[in-house]
Specification:
68% helix, two-stranded antiparallel sheet, globular, 481 residues, mainly alpha
Length: 481
């Protein structure tokens, strides 16, 4: 049994064209908004503050530029694959077609870490804004049930309370899971409405808050390094880019919806690239305004953009921003949970996971069992982790997936140069290596404890593959009838 056995591109294309149980309901606007829905979230509403305060200072703008550049290289490679093999599974499927089954498993298992913990991270950020909004309208949430376990929460009277559990974060995961079980078209409609709301709120923030910028807050633009690689200086900017890279995984989620797209060969590249470019521009502008209005040292709070709006004297708009953040973060959770279920669905289709995983609901035509199990697995850590711990793990998982996809594009160009490619990565011999090097560079600057957790996670995944997937995969059955 070869662990490097591959799926033929022709077989994948036939599978994409055939009847697969999932409903084709998404057009180019849906896919673009799906990407924006996933990208604009914790990165802009939460990580802007924590990375400025702990890593880069006002140069958090450069962290977003660096992360966005690496993302654009990877997005162009993703677009080629998404048009060539329009099938659910994202990087997992691309790896199966080019690098072999064991690499496909590693990517798929890595995507579990990426999507599940991404939803966890965003749920934690959502909780921070909900608690702030409810407090402002006179509905306080007990501090013990509004933050990660062990977090010291300072009360209005100066007293300190130790948090036990983050209840709002758990509740939003449960609600979004229920919506996803109901159906992808209904989920896409909700996502479209929410995306228009949160983009509108972000644009209003930009329009009014820039007037309160004090250029003195940008000095020094790159604070001196404190002696730790992660804290300020040029190395702090790179470390910050590794963390905010978490904010860019939305375009990856677009590719997981390939089998629910009406015209995937045309619409998938459009949705991936358009959503990434729009969101990168918004990230850069918002982070510049935030650090210009409020000194970066004061931005390490659960709701930094609301704090900036308060400092800018926007009054009523602060509550509107909180509502926009709440709606926006909800849509990110929706897209990430949807993407994770589709990756599991593809892995089960290939025999690498038990058949129950890809069972489709007879009425809703969604992978409902997988969606419910994932909802539970995401909700539990959302109640106990901090936003920074979860975001670092998501970033390293995302970067690893991007490295493999960029390498796979090059390998397929060598192996099968004559394939009809509806979309070709421009300057592929520059773009793909640049994507690999940028992602590896950002991975290098992530904390060692994040590497340790990634390696432990991958070791668990490989054990599952050896004990189950390697013997049960459909390719194994085909080669050993």
């Amino acid at each position: 049994m070869s662990i490097f056995r591959r799926k033929a591109i022709a077989d994948l294309q036939a599978e994409a064209a055939g009847e697969h149980g999932l409903k084709r309901a998404l057009g180019p606007l849906n896919l673009t908004l799906l990407g924006i829905g996933a990208i604009i979230g914790t990165g802009i509403f939460v990580l802007t503050g924590t990375v400025a305060a702990q890593n880069a200072g006002p140069a958090v703008v450069l962290s977003f530029v660096l992360a966005g550049t690496a993302s654009i290289f990877a997005a162009l490679c993703y677009s080629e694959f998404a048009a060539l093999v329009p099938i659910a599974g994202s990087a997992y499927t691309y790896g199966y077609a080019t690098l072999g089954e064991v690499f496909a498993w590693i990517i798929g298992w890595d995507l579990v870490l990426e999507y599940a913990l991404s939803a966890t991270t965003v749920a934690i950020g959502w909780s921070g804004y909900v608690v702030s909004f409810l407090n402002h309208i006179g509905i306080p949430i007990p501090a013990q049930f509004s933050a990660a376990a062990g977090t010291q929460v300072v009360m209005a009277d100066g007293a300190t309370v130790t948090a036990v559990f983050n209840l709002p974060a758990v509740l939003i995961v449960v609600l979004v899971t229920a919506l996803l079980v109901r159906g992808v078209q209904e989920s896409a409609r909700v996502n479209n409405i929410v995306v228009f709301i949160k983009v509108g709120v972000v644009l209003l923030f930009i329009l009014f808050a820039w007037r309160a910028i004090d250029p003195a807050n940008w000095q020094p633009f790159i604070p001196a390094n404190t002696g730790s690689r992660e804290h300020f200086g040029v190395s702090g900017i790179v470390a910050g880019a590794g963390i905010v890279f978490f904010a860019y995984i939305g375009f990856d989620a677009v590719s997981t919806a390939a089998q629910e797209a009406k015209n995937p060969q045309r619409d998938m590249p459009f949705g991936i690239i358009a959503s990434l470019l729009i969101c990168t521009l918004l990230y850069i502008v918002v982070s510049a305004i935030a650090t210009g209005v409020v000194p970066y040292q004061q931005l390490d709070v659960p709701d930094p953009i609301a704090k900036v709006a308060d400092a800018a004297g926007l009054g009523w708009m602060t509550r509107l921003i909180e509502l926009g953040a709440i709606a926006g973060l909800s849509s990110v959770i929706l897209v990430q949970l949807m993407g994770q279920a589709r990756v599991f669905w593809s892995m089960a289709n290939d025999g690498l996971l038990p058949p129950v995983v890809n069972r489709i609901h007879p009425t809703f035509r969604t992978p409902w069992i997988t969606q419910i199990v994932l909802g539970v697995l995401v909700a539990i850590p959302a109640g106990f982790l901090s936003v920074r711990e979860a975001a670092s793990l998501v970033s390293i998982g995302t970067l690893l997936a991007f490295v493999i996809v960029c390498a796979a594009v090059l390998l397929l160009r060598i192996r099968e140069p004559g394939l009809h490619r509806p979309f070709k990565t421009p300057l592929v011999w520059f773009t793909a290596p640049a994507g690999i090097l940028c992602c590896l560079y950002l991975m290098y600057f992530l904390p060692w404890r994040t590497w340790e957790r990634l390696l432990i996670w991958l070791a668990i995944g490989l054990a599952i593959y050896v004990l189950y997937g390697m013997r049960k995969s459909k390719l194994a059955a085909r080669s050993n009838p």
